[in-house]
Amino acid sequence: MTEQVFAVPASIEGMVDDLREGLLPPAVFHDRDVYDLELRRIFAKSWVYIGHETEIPSRGDFVTRNIGEDPFILIRDEQGELRVLLNACRHRGAQVCRVQAGNTKGFVCPFHGWTYRNSGELVGAPVRTQGYAALDLKEWGLFAAPHVINYMGLVFANLDPDAMPFEQYLGDYKWYFDIQFALSDGGMEVLGEPHRWLVDANWKQGAENFCGDSSHTQMTHRSVLDVGIIGSAAAGAPKEGTGLHIHDCSGHAISIRQIPGEAPFISYPEEVTRHFHPGVLNQDQFDLAKRSLLQNGTLFPNFSFLHIGLSDSPEKPQAGFLTLRVWQPKGPGQMEIWSWVLAPKEASPEYKRRAYQVGMSSFSPSGSFEQDDVAVWPGVTRSAGTVFAEMNDVRFNYQMGMGDMSSSKPLADWVGPGVANSTNAGEGGLRTFHKTWFERMTNTTVEISDHD
Amino acid sequence: MTDAAIAAHAVPISTIQLVEIGVQRLCEEFLKLEAEYLDDRRFADWFALLDPAIDYEAPVRTVRENWDGSGISATAFYLKEDYDSIETRVKRLRSRYAWSESPATRTRRLVSNIRVARHDGNPTLMAVRSNLAVFCHRGDAAHPQILTAERFDAVRIGTGEPRLVKRTAILDAAVLGLKSLSIFI
Ligand code: FES
Ligand SMILES: [Fe+2]
Predict the structure, then answer these.
(1) Ligand 1 atom 3, closest CA
(2) pLDDT digits (tens, 9 = 90+) for A373-408
(3) I need a labelling partner for A374 at 20 to 30 A (CA). Which of A67, A202, A261, A303 fits?
(4) What is the predicted ipTM?
């Protein structure tokens, strides 16, 4: 495979010094050459989320998805195998699939009629005996992502033939990640088709936010706090003991709100939690879930989750749900957000409907939380592109909770992996994200300690 | 409209049905008044037009092959609201910290192609189908985002003022260009 030679842009070359100071050059959110390198070094080389197996339960079911800006088809073939196929005809490149979802035994290209099985194999081309007598069908099937994994129902793909195995990529973060998907034996089920919408902000705004931007809740989401559809413990100001930030966890980060000594269990009601038991989780993981009000994180680069309980009216009880989102890049200044709502498979149909409703009402285009996030984020992207920023070497400040800035030290006796802070008055998770990003962009390893 | 997703939610009107001119006018004026309240951000007045039993939804749609149904989801929605949840949204909009609508989207709703029919066996419940275009101007952007939708409503008439009992608003977009759906449709 050819590695295109793209130099690391000058705007981020010296960024490691900024990272050490907890600073970020605006170019990361704006420059086209940075973006072009991201598509190659981040999206073409990371494990990127494609979809959930419950979206395509039957043979032939497919949905169309993207890796970076490249179009792919996620399909369950006749053998039941999950395939991630490039949506581009091997003849001269027309898109063989022009819808977002469906069920098919194969694809017939609308341009000249090359015909593929749903496994991607080429089975024929018109007038083959006259014009393609020597065509080796085996050589000309649809391109497929070289690595695809189904991890607890989540399908990830990696376009890099030399990619490290998914488990290694996930690393220690597995400890937190698994909690989201393995509380019950059946795992989590996707409820309905995804929301998709465009926001004029860089994709990293969403990705870093879910790494633990706990201090934005009080300001960005103040209107929601005012109407009382989130419990005060879950939404309160950053607080020692209840807020928990884990960063530097194999390059990923997570934010947790917990009530030590209590068992809110992410606001799932008893009818759901009675299906929960440790199973593949160990007791420490299970206990953490039990005392959690919410957990949110980003698996680098652009796959985020939020496990939380909310309501759509103060008159109605909170309902727990899991939302998954993909921050899909569409140029440096725009992203398409994809979001799904999930609930434990064992939950009743009524509960799933309720979980969907609550999830949609809070995190979706009409979500009373998310509406306000995306009202704010485009401002950052705009600031990042100012000539003033360029002229004055402007840096964004990500120093919250760093070193002397923090009133507390990382927990010495934390049960899980990563660096754990017992307060969420910090931006350590965001610093982890940008450090990982820099390492992948430059193919280097950076040693930075947040608490020297 | 044969799609189960629509049929389950609303009375389709695909033949010419003549209802009394007064009833027709009443339903048309009702939709126009509703649009006026929303464009003028008179949310309390708008909320008063809703029946407490309101079932208000805007399903997600997915691009599918022509032979593969309408692509209108029966399970995924942009809005899936009842009286309480709408009231919560309306209350939130009153907050000066509801950043998506602060400053407010300037909306201009065009409601057209209004067709009215009777629900079988219920003389006071009218099926009202209409087209909607909403021009959304945000901030200092020079160009509006335009949302178009078809709406299948059930409007209760009879004694007192008409009230909206049910709405299914089917957006034409499969990917929303609007950064947030912070308006009612
Ligand atoms: S491009 Fe597909 S058959 Fe020619
Ligand atoms: Fe937020």
Answers:
(1) A112
(2) 999 999 999 999 999 999 999 999 999 999 999 988
(3) A67
(4) 0.94
